[in-house]
């Protein structure tokens, strides 16, 4: 039996016998996942140490000074309270932003009428720099956790919305037509064909959203707060305590890395088929 593709006869048995690309060994995967990143970290640390020896510690403290300040922040309990406040507001805002973005993205991605009505307003809102809305949020809800949570919601919402809508629009029309031919209802089409085909797009939006959520948390606390990591970053920056400032920068980065890693783990656990080519 043979298949004809672009006027070329291809033997199906021959295709089945073609060798598959070899998978990396356990040692190779260990090198890529563990050893290579550690080597890069070592190179960065050595370069940092060398650069710090030529400038003032106020401008660039050496790595061991930053590590010491990082430990001091936790040993004295300074970081724990701020971190707890920031994490609570971050995940409340991210949850609301992700859910709202996915639901509204499904609506405007699937139904052209909804896109026609809501699309211009959403595009205008997405094009507006969100930080200029902070004074308006203060007027609406005051200088409180509500303003900071709302800012995280806004900064998380749009990438998820746009990716979800784009994913639904890019589902193969052929798949949808086959589903309709089989008598699937609109709800069944969404559940069995359209949403599964859109999952890679949605997850890409979620990864962007959870990373941007940390930025929203920090910016919101810098502008609308006297608590949290953002406030501490402002405080130590104004006091030229660069070691503690860099320690908090790394801590904030770790939160973002943790969020993205959590999404990737969820993708590997619940959506393995989206990673079939990796």
Give the gist of this structure.
This protein is mainly α. It has helices at 12-17, 26-52, 63-75, 78-110, 112-127, 134-141, 145-169, 173-181, 186-223, 228-238, 242-270, and strands spanning 2-5, 8-11. It contains eleven helices and two strands.
Q: Uncertain regions: pLDDT < 50 for 5+ in a row? A: 1-12
Strands, count: 2
Largest sheet: 2 strands, antiparallel
**Count of all domains:** 2
> Which CATH class of the largest domain?
Mainly Alpha
Give me the number of helical elements: 11
The CATH topology of the largest domain:
MetI-like fold
How would you sum up this structure, described in words?
The chain has 278 residues and is mainly alpha-helical. It folds into 2 domains: 22-54; 62-275, Orthogonal Bundle (MetI-like fold). It is built from 11 helices and 2 strands. The two termini are 30 Å apart. The model is unreliable at 1-12 (pLDDT under 50).
Labels describing this entry:
about 280 residues; mainly alpha; MetI-like fold; 2 domains; two-stranded antiparallel ribbon; 11 helices; 2 strands; about 75% helix; about 5% strand
């Amino acid at each position: 039996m043979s298949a004809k593709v672009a006027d070329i006869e291809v033997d199906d048995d021959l295709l089945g016998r073609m060798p598959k690309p070899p998978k990396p060994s356990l040692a190779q995967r260990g090198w890529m996942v563990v050893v290579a990143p550690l080597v890069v970290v070592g190179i960065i640390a050595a370069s940092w140490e060398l650069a710090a020896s030529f400038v003032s510690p106020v401008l660039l403290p050496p790595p061991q000074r930053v590590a010491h300040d990082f430990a001091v922040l936790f040993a004295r309990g300074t970081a724990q309270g701020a971190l707890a406040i920031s994490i609570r507001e971050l995940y409340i805002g991210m949850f609301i932003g992700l859910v709202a973005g996915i639901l509204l993205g499904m609506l405007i991605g699937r139904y052209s009428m909804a896109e026609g009505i809501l699309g211009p307003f959403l595009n205008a809102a997405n094009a507006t720099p969100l930080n200029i809305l902070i004074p308006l949020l203060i007027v609406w809800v005051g200088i409180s956790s509500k303003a900071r949570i709302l800012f995280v919601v806004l900064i998380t919402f749009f990438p998820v919305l746009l990716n979800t809508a784009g994913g639904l629009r890019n589902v193969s029309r052929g798949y949808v037509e086959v589903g309709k031919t089989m008598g699937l209802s609109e709800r069944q089409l969404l559940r069995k064909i359209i949403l599964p085909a859109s999952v890679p797009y949605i997850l890409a939006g979620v990864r962007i959203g959870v990373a941007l959520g940390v930025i929203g948390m920090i910016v919101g606390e810098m502008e609308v707060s006297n608590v949290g990591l953002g406030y501490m970053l402002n405080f130590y920056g104004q006091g030229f305590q660069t070691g503690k400032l860099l320690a908090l920068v790394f801590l904030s980065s770790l939160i973002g890395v943790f969020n993205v890693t959590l999404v990737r783990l969820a993708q590997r656990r619940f959506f393995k088929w989206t990673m079939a080519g990796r």
